[in-house]
Amino acid sequence: MELDDVLAADYSYCILLIELIRNITPKEFQENLASIFKDVPDQSCYTRKRDDLINQFASKLLEDRPTESKSDENMQTQKGGKDFLCIDNAIFQNVRSYHQEQARERLEDQLKKLDTPTFDKKKFQVALFGWVIHFEKNDEFTRRVKDLYQKNKEVFNIDTKGQRYTDTKKAFIEQYETLQIVEDVIIPKKADSLKGKMKIVRVTSIEKGNRFYKTVCLARHTASKNEQYMFEVIRDFGNFKLKTELKKGNDALFRVRRVLQTKKCHHKDPTTFEPCQRRCMKYNPGDSGLVCKNCNHMHKQINLYKDMKHLPVLLILQRRGRLGDTFPDSFNCMDLRICYRKDVSI
């Protein structure tokens, strides 16, 4: 099991869950908690949506793996760079189990402090929130929690008044590095403007970087309901040039250009250097081009990383940055965990 694949699975799991975590209301959370403690647990709205996403993603991972008869052929294609595989579904399931176990251990630690001077209700509610978010099955621990719930209902009731519930969510997210990164890079669907962040992940090889890229793209595709725009994923393995890639008509980078286009045209006449006066961008319905129909210019050229300011993007790097590379002001995180860890355990 490669560290690159484990991190790809971790990013994917967080991508699948982040919108559900953001949108779970206090009422839905209490319904979810109540359903866990039923003699015959039913699936709450949150649990059903979560499991649907995870099962869809797991099915796609299984479909991506080569059959036994075509394994050698597919691996040769992968090494040749023409095609590549996602990570193994078993790694994704291990990462999911890890999150479930972590949530359980955190709650167990807080339960030990019940009726003691060191008990902190806020920390307990954060641990309870995480356990419900990751909850998988009714077992002995669940039954023990249920017994304590019957005796301490007041403590188990998450404070759902205004900012306190939001603070509980925020504290839960801050427990996990990857979840924090994903939460910051994915703009909420209700956002009024493009104010995204750039995050960079360093991988150890091109082959592993390709697996990372395809896996994360698959998670984005699953979570965003068939490629509704959420955030961009770009890979730079040393010989990548943004300006060249844009000319190839790459679908991902086409979205980059279209999202970053401005209402005001920044084009200047090459002879007179007179700026274009148009301030209204227009595309014909179904038009796949980027040239404005009002002025016949592309309003903003996207040639360098620094031109991607405020674009929500996960940039996968395999080598150290090249001399002259300048990242935008919206770049705020370099994930180097793969480079400095030797332990391949989750």
Describe the 3D structure.
This protein has 346 residues and is mainly α. It has two domains: 3-184, no CATH class; 188-340, no CATH class. 50% of the residues lie in helices and 6% in strands. It has 14 helices and four strands. It has helices at residues 3-23, 26-36, 45-64, 71-80, 89-111, 121-134, 140-151, 153-156, 163-173, 177-185, 206-223, 242-247, 251-260, 337-340; strands at residues 198-202, 232-236, 313-317, 331-335. Strands 2-3-1-4 form a four-stranded parallel β-sheet. The radius of gyration is 23 Å and the shape is elongated. 29% of the residues are buried. Residues 68-82 have low confidence and may be disordered.
Write a compact overview of the structure shown:
The protein has helices at 3-23, 26-36, 45-64, 71-80, 89-111, 121-134, 140-151, 153-156, 163-173, 177-185, 206-223, 242-247, 251-260, 337-340; strands at 198-202, 232-236, 313-317, 331-335. With 346 residues, the chain is mainly alpha-helical. The longest helix is centred in the first third of the chain and has 23 residues, at 89-111.
Global outline: elongated
> What's the number of domains?
2
Would you list the SSEs in sequence order as H and E?
A: HHHHHHHHHHEHEHHEEH
Mean pLDDT: 82
> In total, how many beta strands?
4
Number of helices: 14
Helices and strands: which structural class?
mainly alpha
Percent of residues in beta strands: 5-15%
